[in-house]
Design a protein that fits this description.
ABC_transporter-like_CS, 8-stranded mixed sheet, Oligopeptide transporter subunit ATP-binding component of ABC superfamily, 334 residues, AAA+_ATPase, Oligopep_ABC_C, alpha/beta, Rossmann fold
């Protein structure tokens, strides 16, 4: 795709956590939470990242945001490699990249009012000389953002415990919008909410994207949520992306055996269609991420595995325009 369309470019991202037996001991092994992830996010789109719990989705988002220092790889935001950026460069880059967290209560400071929470990014940038804003301008900005996300401006002096879960997540979204970012990393932002509130927050995300031209990396394990919100979808399994395609194409024509199994597990609200569906039941448990495998990570559970799959890791390659898959069923090993 043309370079001017790419906002976020992730190349070979790895995040390995050391396993230590004692406080001062050296790492004897690692948890390979993310083990070589490559993808790009275009300006104005929503890339959905989906997979089972523990596959490395949230770790990927935190490594992109540099909340975790990646073990290896490159993360380019507007052609700036965040992994090599110094403190001031990284702070300036955060103006264009913000994050909405999964737990709307744990991500808010309980000792700060809603207004102070939303204003905090602006005050930090003002303190570091990266923007100018008077107290009245900050107050006006906070009130505008609260109204924009569906909260009354008269609630700005309330504390997080005085809000419901959905309202707290709206505060988190308003905080993410405070600096007018281009990219928002959404780490399962609706999974902790009731179903009725989930739909409200998802519609809010879509409305804000249309109004401000936002770009989302949207993480979820709920396939219906991903289908509703995403332009493209990346499927992740055990620290690796196994398939990327346009949302409609992936749901109609899944190629990777894991994607097929994942989609077959999602219920369909029509009982007649649901009764006729063939459900793929995977055998075995998800392998532990404390071992690196020479071949495909899905080999042990794959109903279509071949001998080569155990020895060689398949690369993520394009099988048709816009559809990439990591599987030897569709391309030969090099």
């Amino acid at each position: 795709m043309p370079d001017h369309e790419i906002l976020l470019d992730v190349r070979g991202l790895k995040m390995h956590f050391p396993i230590r037996t004692g406080f001062f001991s050296k790492a004897k092994n690692f948890i390979y939470a993310v083990d070589g992830v490559d993808f790009q996010v275009r300006k104005g789109e929503t890339l959905g990242l989906v997979g089972e719990s523990g596959c490395g989705k949230s770790t990927t988002a935190r490594a992109i945001a540099q909340l975790y220092k990646p073990t290896a790889g490159e993360v380019y935001l507007n052609n700036l490699d965040l992994t090599k950026a110094n403190g001031q460069e990284l702070l300036a880059a955060r103006k264009n990249m913000q994050m909405v967290f999964q737990d709307p209560y744990a991500s808010l400071n309980p000792r700060m009012t809603a207004g102070d929470i939303i204003a905090e990014p602006i005050r930090i940038f003002k303190k570091n000389g990266l923007m100018e804003a008077s107290k009245d301008e900050i107050d006006d900005r906070v009130e505008q953002l609260m109204e924009k996300v569906g909260l009354s401006r008269f609630f700005k002096n309330r504390y997080p415990h005085e809000f419901s879960g959905g309202q707290r997540q709206r505060i988190g979204i308003a905080r993410a919008l405070a600096l007018n970012p281009e990219l928002i990393l959404c780490d399962e932002p609706v999974s902790a909410l009731d179903v009725s509130i989930q739909s409200q927050i998802l519609n809010l995300f879509r409305d804000l994207q249309d109004e401000f031209g936002l770009t989302y990396l949207f993480i979820a394990h709920d396939l219906s949520v991903i289908k509703y919100i995403s332009t493209r979808v990346a499927v992740m399994y055990l620290g690796l992306i196994v398939e990327i395609a346009d949302a409609g194409d992936l749901y109609k024509n899944p190629l990777h055996p894991y994607t097929e199994a994942l989609l077959s597990a999602a219920p369909i609200p029509d009982p007649k269609i649901e009764a006729k569906r063939h459900r793929i039941i995977l055998t075995g448990d998800v392998p532990s991420p404390d071992k690196q495998r020479p071949g495909c990570n899905f080999y042990d559970r794959c109903p279509k595995h071949m001998d080569i799959c155990k020895k060689v890791r398949p690369a993520l390659k394009e099988t048709e325009p816009g559809h990439q898959v990591s599987c030897f069923l569709y391309h030969k090993p090099e």
